[in-house]
Amino acid sequence: MTRVTDDIIIRAVARVMIPFIQLYALYVIMHGHHSPGGGFQGGVILGASFILYLLTHGLEEAKIRMSEIKAGLFSSFGVLIYSGIGLLCLILGSNYLDYGKLSTILKVVPAQARSLGILGVEIGVGITVMAVMFSVFFDISTGGELPEDEE
Amino acid sequence: MDSFFLWLGMGLFTLVLLCLYRGVFGPGVLNRIAGICAIGTKTLVILLLMGFIYNRVEMFIDISLVYALLNFIGTITVAKYLEMKGEV
Does residue A41 belong to the interface with chain B, where contact is any CB pair within 8 Å? Predict the structure, then answer.
């Protein structure tokens, strides 16, 4: 599953489509509170773009863009953003993930602070879901055996 | 106009059932893949028609875009899996 394909059509189509897929994924993450979507769905689309890259360009080229170690780091980083925003609200004296209190450090009105807080949480969730999707596909397609240069 | 979209959707739904027959009972793997891909494209159009019926096409167009995208990636994945296994 991770070999390079020699089909020029598939590679060219994937190279054209991947930037638009990622742009659409960012739109779904950012626009999550006005239209269907949100962190999880946008993360799935973003992960699908990386999976498409891995399928069409092979394992070696895909590891330059997103390796297993980077995927692990990204998945923890997204959870860090999520829980960090929650703990920041807790430190500022309100409940966990109660974004209204963020207005004191963001210097905006509480309604705007709620919107920005949920946006930050969505971004964290999106990063985590993207990395975990890619990591699951990576592990399944390589049979769980990491290549020799990454222990 | 709504009843027109409704009848169009029902017609597409019958075609989906025909494709589903090909996907379940079709001889060989390639017939099944073709049937499932055809179901994907028809579902996309049905989603857009639902958006026109409910007057919320800007919401359904997002869903149908994602559906088309995942259909494309799924087809490529299955095709590549079959290419590797070599059992067509």
Answer: yes
CA distances in angstroms from A141 to A73, B69, B80, listed in the order given: 20, 21, 12
Contacts of B76 in chain A (CB under 8 A): 10, 52, 55-56
Flag whether the ipTM exceeds 0.85: no
DSSP string computed for B15-80: HHHHHHHHHHH-SSHHHHHHHHHHHHHHHHHHHHHHHHHTT-HHHHHHHHHHHHHHHHHHHHHHHH
B59 contacts chain A (CB < 8 A): yes
The residue of chain B with its CA nearest to that of A52 is B73
Q: One digit per residue, pLDDT tens: chain B, 88 residues?
A: 778 999 999 999 999 999 999 989 878 888 888 898 899 999 999 999 999 999 888 888 888 988 998 898 888 888 888 877 765 5
Inform me whether the C-beta atom of residue A3 falls under 8 Å from chain B C-beta atoms: yes
Find all residues with CB under 8 Å of B25, minimum gap 6, and list them: none
Model confidence pLDDT, tens digit, residues A126-145: 999 999 999 898 888 777 67
User: What is the spatial distance between Cα A57 and Cα A11, in angstroms, rounded to a whole number?
Assistant: 7
Domain-wise residue ranges, chain B: 2-85
Question: What's at B22, amino acid-wise?
Answer: R
Tallying the residues shown for chain B, one arrives at: 88
And the tokens for A82? 């999520």
Question: Maximum Cα–Cα distance for chain A, whole Å?
Answer: 58
